[in-house]
Amino acid sequence: MLALLAMADCMQDWPEPVVRVQALAESGLAAIPRCYVKPLCDRPAPAADDDASSGLSIPVVDLRGGGGDELGDQLAEAVAAACRGWGFFQVVNHGVRPELMRAAREAWRGFFRLPLPEKQKYANSPRTYEGYGSRLGVEKGAILDWGDYYFLHLSPEAAKSPAKYWPANPVICKEVSEEYGGEVIGLCERLMRLLSASLGLDETRFQEAFGGAECGACLRANYYPRCPQPDLTLGLSAHSDPGVLTVLLADDHVHGLQVRRRDGHWVTVQPLPDAFIVNVGDQIQILSNSMYKSVEHRVIVNAEEERISLALFYNPRGDVPVAPAPELVTPERPSLYPPMTFDEYRVYVRKNGPKGKAQLEALKGQSITENNE
Ligand code: OGA
Ligand code: NI
């Protein structure tokens, strides 16, 4: 309890004055400040060592049809293969209108183009993260990422960010984000049925385990400004997503997302037109008892162009303890994780910021309160 109180206290505000990366980039500086320079081992590989020559890419799942049993089985099999092999895939023919996708992305681009004082009105704090932010984690002296973001809760209704957290400009931002969010949440629900079925469970099993109709959804608009020294830093450090599923709408022409393959190799994702990029989050790794693993990913930046992405995080209801499904626990495959609620897990993750997969690994066989101390 004391540890939780102490943590709540340190989460009231950022440990250092907040610097907007966009403002730094626009100041035209030739060298990035020291606090953005990553240690050698975390820097992006020179382009020649990248995957361009290896021909590796994340799988593509076509969601068209799939209503009938047989098609549904094939689809579940495709999803299963993508989750086992990569934990990351693109979905096409997903049913979300391309015009809505574009409208949402452009609304957020419009926000980031506003003058700085206009954006500062929505400056966020580590207590809820809602609003305009420039760092994840509250560790003093941490090496920071080359990106700004805007974070909001979309659902359930009771958890939705109050009006004051939504930008007044662009005027359509709220409406378009809500409509977009509703559609993408529908897609997440469909993906959950497929994931559940692909593990031989009842279609509704995953959704129920994560809180039924009360699952959460959050939106993060990520903005990665141009960077004068892209080889020294990252737009977003390696991390796995803490929730259930993430549906990412990537920039339509600037690449940047990299996924870590099993062999440790970083692969740059080449988004298909109008596709979403989906990845398995930590909660699916927990519920599936590690049959499906959340995968590390990161973002690289470049000197020529800014990049924007919209990440929709589909999360469990905050107060439901999530643990490996008993059907997936056997004497040969004992339960790997203690039950924990997403509210607890999120506090833990928010304090530490992006840390690869270290956060989930540390929980194996432990209780979250031990880790929060
Ligand atoms: C995230 C994320 C990737 C990107 O927001 O968690 O991984 O391309 N974003 O912005
Ligand atoms: Ni992510």
From TrEMBL:
Its required cofactor(s), as named, are:
Fe(2+); L-ascorbate
One GO term of the biological process aspect: regulation of defense response to fungus
Fe2OG dioxygenase domain location is 215-316
- Keyword hit for Methyltransferase: no
Its recorded reaction(s) are: jasmonate + 2-oxoglutarate + O2 = (1R,2R)-12-hydroxyjasmonate + succinate + CO2
Read off the SUPFAM superfamilies from this record. Clavaminate synthase-like (SSF51197)
The protein's UniProt keywords, in alphabetical order, are:
Iron, Jasmonic acid signaling pathway, Metal-binding, Oxidoreductase, Plant defense
Q: Does the keyword field hold Iron?
A: yes
Annotated family? Belongs to the iron/ascorbate-dependent oxidoreductase family.
Q: What is this protein called?
A: Fe2OG dioxygenase domain-containing protein
